[in-house]
Every structure is written in structure tokens, then in C-alpha cells.
């Protein structure tokens, strides 16, 4: 189906269903219940981020997962894409099509330059080079190229901007041919409430396309070549193959994915700032990929989803919410439980993330996807008889 | 991508569910009230969006304390704080328009992107009708823009850049805190009196919006009284080590160093300037002096005894003697055990001002609230008679000029709180400016946006 094997098609189908039904799946609790107020994640802004960062990490995974080259400066492409998109809004119009197209192109060109230089080295030197380029871009955007980036305040669209192609009466917010991104329909279903937003569905569509493309790349001869580079680049060179062009292409594709993500971020919210390129943002991408499962197809989407969920949902749980959640318990016990949970929520969300990351890296080197596979194996009859040899194989080649 | 596997049962099931969903009597489209997040039921939700991690986390957490206190007072808990001293008497401790006030909190991490994401979640998920907070002008400007688009009111917290109510002003955004221009206007007469007219100033400036507007304002105001600006050097934010920027000051011929830095940067640059012996130096036959245009308690705490004899300005200080200040300091001190910072004060006041405007307008509609806030004159909030100017949504009130001193109490916990002394309360008339002043030009409020 669509040039995919049965198994891959099934995976694609799962992703399609999950993304299309996300507004429902992510709002499992009634909107006014305390569970709903704490844990519902089905509001457009967050779902957009799930999709956008999913795209970003899928792209990163094409580079890191297939070739094993760890780029530590991927956020630079995201930032460049966002700046390109916002400039399109400022100069042309709020139509997002030119903005997204240009952000992909600009990020692609930018990755040719960075890739050409960085790929002359491998391993840790490659990582440091990409990191250096990203920090350089950050510093440029922050304080040198301020006419282009508006420095720390960030680039945004002002009513006084020219917008040469803006049609009369077009919405003064990002739109596709007049259909505003922010337009949404809310459906009330008893106590439940689901919001379906145009912007989210655009991101979802892009995510599905990006995911499909990534499957095709993984299964193509090109993907096979990249994997060969990962397993032994020296041997590839000895057989007379020039691996450079393959590496560069992987780097460019990966950069263009990041540019797309950056363009979409700007399309959902027409503002961008230099901190999108900061090294912690690059680090976050690496953490997302490793958490989900490097080199797996679905891992990047899982990893980015988990981190964005923690960042947006767990960081907002404060003591008030905790008291609300545990007020059925006797006072003494309630306070003890809240004391225990307190360091892990609210401003302590990064602690939770850190612990989760440690657990994953130590016990599930193949990421959460490997955890899922283990769980699956536990319940399926066929794999229960799987021998220790299988597990050893999984350990050597985690979740591939 | 189609695989026609529609079973009859599947189609029937889907159809039935979809039909039931559509026919549910509670089915509504968007909002009927005409504005975003109109509160239904007996509660209303405020969003407190402050940095809880990152360089300005201390300020953010102090803001959060004050916001929590404001909500308690609005709901009639505690001693009511400034409700009794506020000149407008509409708030009576029964919530706002009879609705109990709830709040949600978010962490901006001092990053515009994160601040916007957090504000979006407050608006879209928690149904917040007002966002309050911010401890960095970049974040405040970004979140203010978001609130304008979404159609909710933004009550800015600590943001000192001219741009917040200048170039980036928005119809749905309001600022109670003072700004860089006011700091410069208030400090210059004091500096002139203390240091004379013939001075050579050297500026070290944090390289972002706030730093630029701060430097521009200080240079313009001091040059008007005869000072000259030797040089302005931009320093990256969060540089940590400023020694390479401070060493050239020694040989530049300048006799004043103006540190346009905030937070941890100011603590580091001031400490290093003192270590380089700038304070005791003689240049051009005069004592070398250091000036820090924007002070905060938390910075003073970090800089310890280095701030002795250094002038700066503040929006408000807990040592003021008026009734409003006393009431606020008392209830804050009783709850938390130490005095509030001026970041805490501005967030507390902003929350009460919003609640009062809603009550006077009789509606939560952002446009009605904005109208109630515009050109609103009030008193009893710690700053004396204050005006919320309608033309740019900036508050005008007295500005405090502070001097760093040795700790009066010797109590280590009070460093920062009692190591700043109020030396002058600059009257409001002296810091006022027309709304189209060149430093604030280039922006327009636009139309008030009620959203939905």
C-alpha cells in the first residue's frame, strides 16, 4: 500500500488515526473535573506543538537515527525557518504557503553550508562543530543581525509592515487563502469538550506527510546506505564508495524538516525569537529523540510528545491543584503526599523529565518504543516463548 | 490511502455516535457571549504567567506570592490588604462580580516562546480571562501581543522597557510598572545634585531592547544637564564575567559608570567594578561613581555591600510610609515572613486594578474593562495618586530614587530589603512625557480585541 509493506502501512495508519483524533484522545476527562483541568492536553496550542516538534524530531532522526551523526545544533535550522516565515508575513501577506515554502528552502540552503563544513569531521568533532554553528547563529540573531531579527524582543508582524501581496479584507492573522489558522469549532459532548482547529489540522497533515516520507527514506536504498555508514563508514570508504554526498543529503533533508517545523511554528503564532536557536533547544531535540527511541520510526513522535506534555502540563500543576486532587484524604496524609509530589511538579517538571530520561537510558536504551515492544512481548503469546537470544539481540541493536 | 473495509456494523455505529453528538442539546458553536473565555458558572480564572526557572526566577516567584495574596484578598480571605486603602471602593472581598477568583500558574522560563506557549494554554485550556505577570520585557512584549490576538486582557508585571507601552503597545495590554524613560527623568536631578554638571559617563548596556531603551533614556537625560557620554558598550546578556568590559573603563577618562544591567548581570558587573577599585578612584579630580538606573531588592541582595553609595531607581519600595504600602507589607509579611519586592507589588496592584475595572465596567468583556482602565485615576496603592493613561496604557506616578546603604538592622535575611534607602520621591509631573515622545513613537494601540 502506497509503496509500503503491510507492517509499515499499519504504523502509518496508526499515526494518521492518532493525529486526526488527537483533539478527542487528548481530552479524556470532563473539562470541569479536576482531572480534566490538570491532565487534559487537547487544546490547540499544545496539539500544534506535538505535531510540529514531532516533525522536527522525525527529521533529526533521519540524520541521527540512520547515520549515527549526532547534530547538536539542529535548533539553528528551526530558528532560521521561523525567521524566514515571519519575514514572508511581513513582506508578502499572512498567507502561510509562501512562508512555509521559503522556510524549508532557507533552512535547506543553510544546512548545505553548515553540513558541508561540519561533515568533514565525524563523531564528537561533528557534534561540536554543529553546536558551534548553532551558537554562532544564536549570537548573530540575538545581537548582531538585529535589523533582521529584532534581537531579544523577537521578530513580529506590525500593522505598519508593507505586506505587498495582502488582499483586501484578508484576515490579519496567518491563514491559508482566507481560512484563518485560529478558526476552530468546539463540540460539547455532555461534560466533555473537544476543540477542532484549522491550524492543528494543518500541522497534523504535515506531520503525516513528514512521517510517510520518513518511512520511505528508511526503507529506500538511500536509507540502507545511510545505515551502512552508521555501522562502518571506514569499510564503506575502502569499498570505493564516496559516503560524503549521502551524508550531506541526509543532513540537508534533516535540516529541511527542521525548517518546515520552524515555518509551521511561525504560521501558528507569527512571532519568533533568537532563543529558538539556543543550545538548550538543540539539546531538547536530542533528548526527545533518545527518549522516544533513536532509529525507530515512531520513536521521535513519542519522545517529542512526552516532553512537550511534561513541559506544558506538569509544569502547571501547583499546590492548589494538588490540594484539589487529594482533598478526599485526611489532612495529615494529604499534606505528606503533597510534600512528596511537590518537587516533581510545577517548577520542578524538569526533575521529573530528568528522572524519566535516566530510567529510559539505563533500562530501555532503545527508548520508550523499546518499552512498548517489551510490553507487547509480555502479552503476546508468540513472543512469550522468545528466548534469551532474542533479548540479547535487542540489547545489541536497540529497537531497530 | 483508502482500504474499503467499511463493515455495516461499523458504519451504523459511527453514524449513531455522530448523530447523537450533533443532537446533544448542549451543543454550542464557539462562544455566545461575544468575547473570549466569558466566565460561566460561579468562578472566574486568572492566569499568572511568571518565570519560575531561569535567570529571573527569583523575581517571578515573588510575583507569584503577591498574586496569590491578591486572589485571597479578592475572595475575602486574609486581612484584605490594599482593598481598604484603594480609592475605588467597589471591591468588597466577595470575588469579582460575585464570582470566586481561581488562578492557574505557568512558567515562562524567561523565554518568549515558552511564555507564549504557557499563556496560550491558559487561554485555550484553562479559560483564563486575564493574564498577569512577566519579569522580562522581551517576554512581556511577546505575551502582550498574544493576548491582543486572543482577545484577553494582559496586565503586565515587571517590564521596564520603553517599548512595552511604546513601539509595542497594544490595546489589550496595560502596564503599571514604570519605564526606562521615567527612571532617567527621576534620577537625573538627583545625579546632577550629587555629582555636578561636568561629568563623563561610560555606559555598559545589556544588549537587548530593555538595555537599549534604558541607555538611550539615561544618555539623553544626563546630556541635557551637561554630562557627556564617553562611550556605550553593549554586553551580551548573561555574560557572567564582565572584567574585560570593565578594564577599559579605567583608562577611558570617564568618571561615572552607568550599568544598564538587570538581575544576575547587574550583580556580576557591579561586583566586578567594585573589585577593580572603580569606587575609590579619582578621575578628572573627582570621585569615580557608579550608577545603576534600575534597582530591585533581589539584585541588591545579590550584590550585598557593593551597592553602598550607588544610586538607582525603583517603582515602589516596602519602606514607604503611606497607608496602602503599610497594609500590603503587613499582609505579605504575615503570610511569607519577609517584605514584598517591587516586582511583587506591581503584580499585586495589577490584579486588584483589573478586578476593580471589571466591577466598575460590570462586565468581563475585555473592551469594557479596557475602557474602565483608560484614564482611570486612583490612589491608595502605595504610589500616591496615579493615572492609567488611555493613550498608551501606561501608569503615571511618583518614582523612587534609591541609594544603597549598609544594612540598618544587620539581619542577614534583610539584605536587599533594608540596604536600599529612599532618598527622593520624584513627583509624577517630572516623569511625564507626551505619548508620541520619540522614544515611544512607532507603535499604535490598535483596536481593542474581545476575541471570539
UniProtKB/TrEMBL annotation, chain A:
The keyword Transmembrane applies. Coiled coil: none annotated. GO terms for cellular component: plasma membrane. Keywords: Cell membrane, Membrane, Transmembrane, Transmembrane helix. The keyword Aminoacyl-tRNA synthetase does not apply. The chain crosses the membrane at residues 9-26, 46-64, 71-89, 95-117, 124-145, 198-218, 246-265, 285-307, 349-369. It comes from the Bacteria. It is found in: Cell membrane. One of its GO terms (molecular function) is branched-chain amino acid transmembrane transporter activity. Pfam families: BPD_transp_2. It is a multi-pass membrane protein. PANTHER family: ABC TRANSPORTER ATP-BINDING PROTEIN, HIGH-AFFINITY BRANCHED-CHAIN AMINO ACID TRANSPORT SYSTEM PERMEASE. This is Amino acid/amide ABC transporter membrane protein 2, HAAT family. It comes from Loktanella atrilutea.
Automatic annotation (TrEMBL), chain B:
InterPro entries: BCAA_transport, Leu-bd, Peripla_BP_I, TAT_signal. Signal peptide: none annotated. Keywords: Amino-acid transport, Signal, Transport. One of its GO terms (biological process) is amino acid transport. Residues 43-405 form the Leucine-binding protein domain. The lineage of its organism: Bacteria, Pseudomonadati, Pseudomonadota, Alphaproteobacteria, Rhodobacterales. This is Amino acid/amide ABC transporter substrate-binding protein, HAAT family. Belongs to the leucine-binding protein family. It comes from the Bacteria.
Amino acid at each position: 500500500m502506497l509503496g509500503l509493506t503491510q507492517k509499515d502501512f499499519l504504523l502509518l495508519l496508526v499515526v494518521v488515526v492518532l493525529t486526526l483524533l488527537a483533539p478527542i484522545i487528548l481530552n479524556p476527562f470532563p473539562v470541569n473535573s479536576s482531572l480534566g483541568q490538570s491532565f487534559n492536553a487537547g487544546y490547540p496550542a499544545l496539539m500544534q506543538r506535538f505535531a510540529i516538534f514531532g516533525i522536527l524530531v522525525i527529521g533529526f532522526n533521519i540524520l541521527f537515527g540512520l547515520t549515527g551523526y549526532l547534530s547538536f545544533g539542529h535548533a539553528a535550522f528551526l530558528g532560521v525557518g521561523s525567521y524566514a516565515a515571519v519575514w514572508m508575513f511581513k513582506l508578502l501577506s499572512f498567507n502561510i504557503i509562501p512562508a512555509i515554502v521559503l522556510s524549508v528552502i532557507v533552512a535547506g540552503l543553510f544546512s548545505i553550508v553548515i553540513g558541508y563544513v561540519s561533515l568533514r569531521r565525524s563523531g564528537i568533532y561533528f557534534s561540536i562543530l554543529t553546536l558551534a554553528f548553532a551558537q554562532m547563529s544564536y549570537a548573530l540573531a540575538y545581537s548582531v543581525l538585529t535589523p533582521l531579527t529584532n534581537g531579544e524582543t523577537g521578530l513580529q508582524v506590525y500593522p505598519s509592515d508593507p505586506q505587498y501581496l495582502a488582499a483586501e479584507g484578508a484576515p490579519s492573522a496567518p491563514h491559508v487563502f482566507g481560512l484563518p489558522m485560529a478558526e476552530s469549532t468546539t463540540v460539547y459532548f455532555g461534560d466533555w469538550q473537544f476543540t477542532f482547529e484549522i491550524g492543528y489540522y494543518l500541522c497534523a497533515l504535515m506531520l503525516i506527510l513528514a512521517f510517510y516520507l520518513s518511512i520511505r527514506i528508511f526503507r529506500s536504498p538511500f536509507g540502507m546506505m545511510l545505515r551502512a555508514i552508521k555501522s562502518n563508514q571506514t569499510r564503506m570508504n575502502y569499498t570505493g564508495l564516496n559516503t560524503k554526498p549521502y551524508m550531506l543529503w541526509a543532513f540537508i533533508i534533516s535540516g529541511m524538516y527542521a525548517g518546515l517545523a520552524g515555518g509551521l511554528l511561525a504560521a501558528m503564532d507569527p512571532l519568533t525569537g533568537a532563543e529558538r536557536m539556543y543550545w538548550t533547544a538543540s539539546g531538547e531535540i536530542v533528548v526527545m529523540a533518545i527518549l522516544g527511541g533513536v532509529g525507530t520510526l515512531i520513536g521521535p513522535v513519542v519522545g517529542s510528545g512526552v516532553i512537550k506534555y511534561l513541559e506544558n502540563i506538569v509544569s502547571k500543576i501547583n499546590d492548589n491543584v494538588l490540594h484539589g486532587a487529594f482533598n478526599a484524604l485526611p489532612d495529615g496524609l494529604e499534606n505528606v503526599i503533597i510534600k512528596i509530589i511537590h518537587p516533581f511538579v510545577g517548577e520542578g517538571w524538569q526533575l521529573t523529565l530528568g528522572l524519566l530520561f535516566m530510567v529510559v537510558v539505563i533500562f530501555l536504551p532503545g527508548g520508550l518504543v523499546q518499552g512498548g515492544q517489551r510490553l507487547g512481548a509480555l502479552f503476546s503469546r508468540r513472543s512469550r516463548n522468545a528466548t534469551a537470544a532474542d533479548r540479547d539481540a535487542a540489547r545489541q541493536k536497540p529497537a531497530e | 490511502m483508502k482500504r474499503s473495509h467499511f463493515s455495516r456494523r461499523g458504519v451504523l455505529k459511527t453514524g449513531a455516535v455522530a448523530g447523537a453528538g450533533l443532537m446533544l442539546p448542549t451543543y454550542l458553536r464557539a462562544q455566545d457571549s461575544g468575547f473570549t473565555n466569558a466566565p460561566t458558572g460561579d468562578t472566574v480564572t486568572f492566569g499568572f504567567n511568571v518565570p519560575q526557572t531561569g535567570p529571573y526566577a527569583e523575581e517571578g516567584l515573588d510575583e507569584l506570592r503577591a498574586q496569590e495574596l491578591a486572589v485571597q484578598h479578592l475572595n475575602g480571605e486574609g486581612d484584605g490588604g490594599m482593598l481598604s486603602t484603594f480609592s475605588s471602593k467597589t471591591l468588597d472581598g466577595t470575588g469579582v462580580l460575585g464570582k470566586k477568583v481561581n488562578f492557574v500558574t505557568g512558567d515562562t522560563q524567561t523565554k518568549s516562546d515558552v511564555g507564549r506557549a504557557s499563556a496560550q494554554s491558559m487561554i485555550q485550556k484553562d479559560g483564563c480571562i486575564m493574564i498577569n505577570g512577566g519579569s522580562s520585557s522581551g517576554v512581556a512584549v511577546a505575551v502582550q501581543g498574544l493576548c491582543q490576538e486572543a482577545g484577553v486582557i494582559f496586565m503586565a508585571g515587571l517590564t521596564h522597557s520603553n517599548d512595552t507601552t511604546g513601539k509595542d503597545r497594544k490595546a489589550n495590554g496595560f502596564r503599571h510598572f514604570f519605564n526606562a524613560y521615567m527612571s532617567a527623568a527621576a534620577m537625573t536631578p538627583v545625579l546632577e545634585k550629587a555629582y555636578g554638571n561636568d561629568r563623563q559617563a561610560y555606559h555598559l548596556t545589556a544588549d537587548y531592547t530593555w538595555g537599549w531603551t534604558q541607555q538611550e533614556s539615561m544618555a539623553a537625560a544626563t546630556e541635557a544637564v551637561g554630562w557627556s557620554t564617553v562611550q556605550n558598550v553593549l554586553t551580551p546578556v548573561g555574560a557572567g564575567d564582565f572584567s574585560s568590559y570593565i578594564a577599559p573603563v579605567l583608562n577611558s577618562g570617564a568618571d561615572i559608570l552607568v550599568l544598564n544591567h538587570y538581575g544576575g548581570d547587574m550583580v556580576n558587573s557591579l561586583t566586578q567594578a567594585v573589585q577593580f577599585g572603580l569606587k575609590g578612584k579619582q578621575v578628572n579630580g573627582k570621585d569615580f561613581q557608579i550608577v545603576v538606573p534600575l534597582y530591585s531588592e533581589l539584585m541588591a541582595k545579590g550584590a550585598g555591600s557593593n551597592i553602598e553609595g550607588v544610586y538607582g531607581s525603583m517603582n515602589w519600595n516596602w519602606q514607604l510610609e503611606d497607608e496602602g504600602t503599610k497594609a500590603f507589607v503587613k499582609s505579605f509579611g504575615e503570610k511569607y515572613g519577609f517584605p514584598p519586592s517591587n516586582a511583587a507589588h506591581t503584580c499585586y496592584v495589577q490584579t486588584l486594578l483589573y478586578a476593580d475595572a471589571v466591577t466598575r465596567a460590570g462586565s468581563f468583556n475585555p473592551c469594557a474593562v479596557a475602557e474602565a482602565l483608560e484614564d482611570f485615576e486612583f490612589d491608595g496603592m502605595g504610589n500616591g495618586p496615579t493615572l492609567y493613561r488611555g493613550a498608551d496604557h501606561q501608569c503615571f506616578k511618583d518614582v523612587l530614587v534609591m541609594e544603597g546603604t549598609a544594612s540598618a538592622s544587620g539581619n542577614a535575611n534583610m539584605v536587599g530589603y533594608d540596604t536600599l534607602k529612599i532618598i527622593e520621591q520624584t513627583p509624577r509631573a517630572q516623569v511625564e512625557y507626551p505619548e508620541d515622545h520619540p522614544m515611544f513613537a512607532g507603535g499604535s494601540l490598535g483596536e481593542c480585541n474581545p476575541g471570539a
